[in-house]
Task: inverse folding
């Protein structure tokens, strides 16, 4: 299975100086990942991962494989700056498959037919008349804080209803003075950042953080990224490739 990698090199004197400033000013590296499907949360996008620059030094590699779990929460009407709590989480499930979520909190295989090979299906088997659930995908990501399945998208799913969710390999990275947890819903980019997409031909991005603005860009001669300005809509940026 392909491993996709985002790499920072803080070993040169210039890069170490930038890292020191980021650490002193309490900056975090925030990551967002795209997905598409019906009834996606309109208030924003869950922060996929948040890593303090205080946890970084030397060569920093953040990587992920396209491995996913389904999550469920009874949180409803999720506003921006709300942190999604994954109340029930399935085991890791392969793309192209489906799970059914039962009223007792269990997951069982199946429940949605004809799921595309690049998507995951979920059937909400709670009784009719129960409140809708917020559901989504958690992707496995390995950061300096360790490997974890963390949520990166959220959808509303009614009882006795089904959904097909397609994860995208579009990533947004931002260096910001925000102390966010994974799952914290954000509507807009808080600082200059960059976006890029992984594919079979591009599995690694070599990145650098610029002095003064702390914008993130690619190192010269490596796979290019697209700049993102502060205030841009996160959902529009990362979910438009579907």
Result:
């Amino acid at each position: 299975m392909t491993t996709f990698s985002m790499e920072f090199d803080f070993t040169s004197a210039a890069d170490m100086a930038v890292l020191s400033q980021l650490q002193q000013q309490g900056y975090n590296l925030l990551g967002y990942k795209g997905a598409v499907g019906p009834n996606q949360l309109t208030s924003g996008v869950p922060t996929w991962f948040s890593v303090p620059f205080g946890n970084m030094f030397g060569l920093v590699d953040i990587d992920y494989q396209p491995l996913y779990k389904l999550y469920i929460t009874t949180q409803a009407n999720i506003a921006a700056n709300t942190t999604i709590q994954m109340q029930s989480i399935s085991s890791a499930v392969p793309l192209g498959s489906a799970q059914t979520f039962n009223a007792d909190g269990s997951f069982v295989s199946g429940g949605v037919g004809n799921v595309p090979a690049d998507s995951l299906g979920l059937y909400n088997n709670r009784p009719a008349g129960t409140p809708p659930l917020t559901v989504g995908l958690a992707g496995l990501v390995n950061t300096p804080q360790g490997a974890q399945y963390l949520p990166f998208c959220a959808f509303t799913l009614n009882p006795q209803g089904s959904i097909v969710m397609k994860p995208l390999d579009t990533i947004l990275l931002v260096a910001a003075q925000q102390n966010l947890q994974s799952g914290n819903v954000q509507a807009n980019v808080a600082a200059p950042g960059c976006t890029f997409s992984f594919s079979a031909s591009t599995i690694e991005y070599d990145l650098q953080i610029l002095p003064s603005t702390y914008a993130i860009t690619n190192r010269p001669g490596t796979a290019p990224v697209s700049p993102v300005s502060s205030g841009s809509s996160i959902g529009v940026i990362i979910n438009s490739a579907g």
User: Anything to note?
Assistant: Helices lie at 13-24, 234-238. The mean pLDDT is 96.
